[in-house]
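The instructor's notes for this session suggest beginning with a concrete chain rather than abstract definitions. Hand out the sequence below and ask the class to guess, before any prediction is shown, which regions might be ordered.
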Amino acid sequence: MSVLDNFDQWKDFLGDRLNQAQNEGMNQQVISDVAYQIGDYLAKQVEPKNDQERLLAQLWNVASEEEQHAMANLMVKLVKNQQ
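After discussion, reveal the predicted structure:
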C-alpha cells in the first residue's frame, strides 16, 4: 500500500521526513522550499487517492504561488504539531 492511499499514513510519512531533515541540519527555509516543491509535484503529477488529497490538490490549483507556499508551510506545521 502506498503512503498516498491513506491521509494519516501520508502525514506520518511527512512527519518522518521532517524529522530526518531537521536531524540532518536543514533549516526552516530549506524545509519550506522542499515542502512547496513536493506540493507542486503532487498537484501536477499524482492523482489524488482520497478526499483529503483531492481537496488539497484543488486548493493548490486555485492558489497563487504565495498561497501555495503558505499551504506547504501549514502542512509542515501540521505534521510538526502531531509529533
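Then share the key points. The chain has a mean pLDDT of 86. The CA atoms of residues 7 and 52 lie 7 Å apart.
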